[in-house]
Amino acid sequence: MKLTVFGATGGIGQEIVKQALAAGHEVTAVVRDPARFAVTGERLTVFRSDLADPEGLRAAVAGRDAVLSGLGARSTKDVGITTTLTRVVLSAMEAEGTRRLVVVSAAPVGPAPERQPAVDRVIGRVVSRVLKGVYDDLRVMEGELARSATDWTSVRPPKLTDKPLTGTYRKVVGGTPRSGRTIARADVAHAMLAVLEDPATVKQGVGVAY
């Protein structure tokens, strides 16, 4: 497949690029600063953009089978950035007629798991209060996806870690894994690539966790 990856210098974005190249895909990695991007490969193209102009991004998404986005706030200071940047990506995709889009969101944006243990409910409420601005931004972003012409999927992980890829995790289409507390960025990337050709995930949120 021909794939474009946004947020390619981030933890999840770099993993998407590495795993996609290893699987034999052609990858266009969109980055603000190529000097911060250390991934190399014969089927890799690095596309420099500050994501300010949809017109400038059209070449990055034209003719692609799918677009994957690891864009997101790095801290509470970046609240609002996910929606802002995703709108630019959506505009470029819609202008080019590129339809398949997979983005990373977060578990609290999805529905609460059934029969969630009390301790997990408490943890969830505390985290949601601390990161309220970040999660509100992701909810607005998902609203933009729902109103778009794309065949989108939102992958919603809990707390992220830098542990190695396992390829083994729980996935709930339209829901959230019960007592799912962590998942490695490498496995989130794996899940995002895995849902690309799964029609059951189109226009759905997908909860992933160990």
Describe it for me?
The structure is a single chain. This protein has 210 residues and is an alpha/beta fold. The chain has a single domain (2-209), classed as Rossmann fold. It has 6 helices and 10 strands, in the order βαββαβαβααββββαβ. The protein has helices spanning 11-22, 54-61, 81-96, 118-130, 132-147, 185-194; strands spanning 2-6, 26-31, 44-48, 66-69, 100-104, 151-156, 159-161, 170-173, 182-184, 204-209. An 8-stranded mixed β-sheet has the order 3-2-1-4-5-6-10-8, sandwiched between helices. Strands 7-9 form a two-stranded parallel sheet. It is globular and about 50 Å long.
CATH homologous superfamily grouping: NAD(P)-binding Rossmann-like Domain
* Number of DSSP strand runs: 10
Largest sheet: 8 strands, mixed
CATH topology: Rossmann fold
Structural class: alpha/beta
Low-confidence stretches: none
The radius of gyration computed from the alpha-carbon positions, rounded to a whole number of angstroms, is 16 Å
> Judging from the principal axes of the Cα atoms, what is the shape?
globular
The CATH architecture would be: 3-Layer(aba) Sandwich
Distance between the termini: 28 Å
Order of strands across the biggest sheet?
3-2-1-4-5-6-10-8
For the residues shown, what is the average pLDDT? 94
Tally of helical segments:
6
Q: What helical percentage do the residues reach?
A: 25-40%
Portion in strands: 15-25%
The total number of structural domains is 1
CATH class descriptor:
Alpha Beta
The secondary-structure element order is EHEEHEHEHHEEEEHE
